[in-house]
Amino acid sequence: MGERWTDEAHLRWERACLERARAGDRAAFAELYRVFAPELYRRVLMPRLGHAQAAQDALSETFRTFLERMDRYEDEGKSVWVWLARVAANKAMDMHRVKARTGRGLANFERLIEPLVAPTPSPGAELEARGEQARIHGHISATLDKLNPRYRRAIELRFFEDRPRQQCAEALEVKLGTFDVLLLRALRAFRREWEAMMAAPSHHVEVP
Question: Nearest Cα to 169, choosing from 60, 177, 161?
Answer without folding.
Answer: 177
